[in-house]
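Section handout 9: paired folding examples.
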Amino acid sequence: MAAEYEIMMDELDEDTCWRLLGRAGFGRVAFVRDGDIAVLPVNCAVVDRRVVFRTAWTSSLASLGAGARVGFQADHADEVAESGWSVLVRGRLRDVTDGPEHTSWSELVVHPWAPPPRDRWMLIEPTLVTGRIVQRHRRLAPGEQVPYMQPD
């Protein structure tokens, strides 16, 4: 008996990666600190194909320094459909707190879940953006149709 579902994994083009990242609102920043790999969650936004987030002045991310190499990953999983996507941004970290970049960004662009103050604006200048999507599709026999369900 043939499988009832077909599982497909595809690479995402860069435009799709940015579109998905723009909807994410949450991701993880990976970096090296004192010789070890660290990963921290951040609330984020995408502005002009750059990832922006806010952090505390005393955070490990804020102390990395200008140009530090970082990775940023955001994803979405649908456990019921056994599908999802993941996007990875590799780039350089910049503190833009004192620059003109963030002055036009509304406070609602990035709303940190962590307790305040989160008033240091960080930006990831991307050097490489990649992504993948895993989808499960139901196999249908020739001529078979999926039953129609009326909306609620």
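Moving on to protein 2 of 2.
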Amino acid sequence: MPTYDATAAECLIYTFKEGFLSRLAHDLKLGVTSLSVTVETEPLAVRASFETRSVQVLCFRRDGRDDPTPLGALERSQIESNLHTDVLASARFPTAQFVSTSITPSSDGFVVRGALTLHGRTAEITAPVQRVADRYVASVTLRQTAFGIKPYSAALGSLKVRDELTVTLSVPAGSGP
């Protein structure tokens, strides 16, 4: 039963801007730096735990790619403060957890179903998992409002983060079925 932390597992969160002033903002790539993913082989199951306070801004994104423009320390600090305080409420909800309920083979990998608890609410999610080189990669689109999270907005709503965001989780392929 292998268990992976952030040295072997990677959880990325992609946010997308919208609104009248969205051209002044950035899509973001965030990373979870404190997590634990356990893969059980008999029966096949996955458990994961993520510390919400460990979510950090990795970079801006432009046109679906990482933007090489450096992120200033003040801007990074402000974004992360808003994220931890206003969006994730990390002091009140320090952990997000996922527990699989079924894992089934698919034509190009697996389909993992399970319960994600985030911001004090639990919702069933389904994530396709594909083998990419030497890793298994799961990707899922989540709606923040499904977990009682109000997407960040500023300037009276003319600049905001879209409700839908994408989360990817990858682990070494040696851990899978």
